[in-house]
Structures are given as C-alpha cells and as structure tokens.
Design brief:
The protein is an all-alpha fold and 274 residues long. 82% of the residues lie in helices and 0% in strands.
Length: 274
Amino acid sequence: MREGWGQTMGMIFAFFAVSILSSIAGSICGIGGGVIIKPVLDAAGIMSVSSISFLSGCTVLAMSLVSVYKNIKGGTAKLNIKTSTALAVGAAAGGAAGKSMFQALKQAAGNEELVGMVQALVLIAITLGTLIYTLYKEHIHTMTCGQIWVCLGIGLLLGIMSSFLGIGGGPINLVVLGYFFSMTTKEAALSSLYIIMFSQITSLIQTCITGNIPDMEVSYLAFMIAGGILGGTIGSKVNKKISDAGVDKLFIFLMAVIVLINIYNAVKFSGLVI
C-alpha cells in the first residue's frame, strides 16, 4: 500500500513539474506550454493520447488566463483588442472544429497509437517551419492585415490546429502574428496567449457538453492546473525583465528540443521502437 502511495505521489510530482516548467516557458514565449506538455507526456507513455490532450488543454487554459491578466495589468506589451479579439473568436470556432476532427480521427482509426503518430508528425512539420521562420525572420517582409474577415479566417485555422493537436496554440501562433500582423515578439506572445485562452475555453466546454472527458486521476488534473497557474504567474514576471532577443533565443531552443521529442514520439507510435 505504501509502495502504491509513493508511486502516486511520484506521478503527481512529475505532472506538476512538467506543467509548471512548460507553463513558465509558454508564458514567456507565448506558445502556451501545451506544445511542450503534449510531446513530453506522449514520450513518457504513462497514459492515453486522449487523456494527455485533455490534461494539456486544461493546463494551458489555466496558464493563459493568468498570463493574459498579469501581462495586461503590468503593461508588459500592448494588446490590439480589435485584431486579437477577431482572431480569438475565429480560434474559438476553430477549436470546436479541431476537437471534432480529433474525435473523428480517433473513431475512424480505432487506435490511439495511430492518432498519436499523426499528431507527432504534424507537430514536427509545424515546429520545424516555425524554427526556420524565427531564424530568418529579420530577412522576411511582413504584412499588416486589418480586415476583420481575414482575422476571423486566420483565427479559425489556428484554432483548428491547436485543438486537434491538443497543444493550445503553440509556436504557429507567433509566426502567423509576426508575419500577417507585423507584431513584435512580446506583442505576438501576448496576443497568442489571448487567442489560446479563447480557443481552450471553447474546447473545454465542447468536451464537457459532448461527454468526451477521458478517464484520469483527478489529482493529476488538479496539480497540472496548479502548475499552469503558478507557471503563468512566474512566466509573466520573467517576461517583463527579458528582452525580445532573449525571448527569441529561448523560443529557438525550445523548438529544437520539441522537434527531437516529436521525432521520437512519431517513431514510438509507429511501433518501430518498443
């Protein structure tokens, strides 16, 4: 009995550690943290793909709520309410569509390992593309889109990808916000968290309404949400002190690590590695 209790506490500590460290990095860079949480827990192979996606989404929601509030209150970066809200509304609709796509693929495949492999492969492509863009962004001519319908459409696509992958938003948000709206690194980070907040709220509501909440230990969820809140608080404070260049360096490092983890996950889910 004591051995079982010790194992449970070890798992709780592991979940909390992953959630708080990912949320700190996610809050600083504006990537949400889910793009770190999801592949790390997938690699550990400690629970189903559906459970990990749900835990990741809830953690990211908690982190984004805290981070957006702290950043706006502290004046860390300027938030374009009109553009960001249009993107967020589109992302909320996309979040619902992405969740439906995930459930449809899961039912059609009848195998969560296959679903996990698809998610890992898509994440590799997105993360690599984001990494390349970030390394060469100083040489890329950006745009300034202001039309509401364009913002809604872009938000829709962002919401679909983030919800389907269970990452909350991730690095693709920063590339899109930087390229289509010429936002600085910190402006893009804040807008990304704002968008993530809306899409995750919609995704969670949809999951609850449809009754697709996966089986899991409630204690894991509680500690991951606590890690998300604490990580968002710490990350917001660090974001005030770090420069745009510092954020970019951290972002590049994280993208490189995430690519490697997702390559491992894709191979693992394919059955080539035991």
